[in-house]
Amino acid sequence: SISFSKFNRFEEINAYMDKLAADYPKLVQLETIGQTTEGREMRVIQISTKRGSRKPVIFVDAGIHAREWLAPAQALYLIKELVENEANRHLLEKVDWHILPVFNPDGYEYSHTKARFWRKTRSNQGACKGTDANRNFGYHWGEVGTSDSSCSDIFRGPSAFSEPESRAVRDYILYRQNQIKLYLTFHSYGNYLLYPWGFTSALPHDDKELRSLGEKVNNAIVAAGGNSYTIGTSTNVLYPAAGGTDDWAKGVAGVELAYTIELPAGGSGFDPAPSQILGHVQQTFEGIKEFGKYIEYKF
Ligand code: 0X9
Ligand code: ZN
């Protein structure tokens, strides 16, 4: 079963979501949104107090990069708090949460069983396997900070949306384009709160709003004892990298509020000690609540 003193395997995460769906049938619905290259199911948990509601949706994903294990842990903790902790019911009053805890389950399992620092998907690409799904989205695809070599960790894929995992998330978001008001994607590591763009150093039209919401979130995390985040556009505070999910969500799907959250480091960077997981996910959850409050107030 799942816990926050270890990194849970994909099957454990699925079994937990099944249990939530069985125990909280009024609150939880599961949707399989696609299949990976190796045939695993990609499952989104929809948390809502009202079936068929037209409330604003916050869409969250994690684990697009296989080795960034704190990201699925954070998504799982968010799921647990939203569903199982009655003190958090207010976060569901005006907003629905749709969460994909493991974007890249083939890679995630591979990083558990064969190669700890695997990043990409597991598709066949000629010389080497796998595409960086965060270079595979179809907005300024193939531009700066990407590679056309299948052996590179930032391989963009042979074409935009070449990966079944990318297509599943693209289609899920496009289908709910008008309802999704905030897109959050969890990565690790380094404590960065990033927003578009990753393909250019130009600022988005709503840079001020994105930054000030980022600051609210960071203040809550710091107040909870977490490390402070560097806030800004991907290009300006981290590095340029085109074809990311966040840029696509904002630039194509029209989800104006889109953030990549680079969670804290630990161990090699990608593997905080099991004893550190709970503290990190609790502190970050305090920031995620601020995102929820903002969407509630704005829409
Ligand atoms: O390079 C990435 O994909 C992300 N960093 S990571 O170390 N987790 O790999 C940052 C992505 C930021 N967003 C865009 N560049 N669009
Ligand atoms: Zn990442």
Automatic annotation (TrEMBL):
Domain Peptidase M14: 6-295
Catalytic site positions: 262
Organism: Photinus pyralis (Common eastern firefly)
Domain of life: Eukaryota
Similarity section: Belongs to the peptidase M14 family.
Residues represented out of the complete protein: 503 to 801 of 802
Protein name in UniProt: Zinc carboxypeptidase A 1
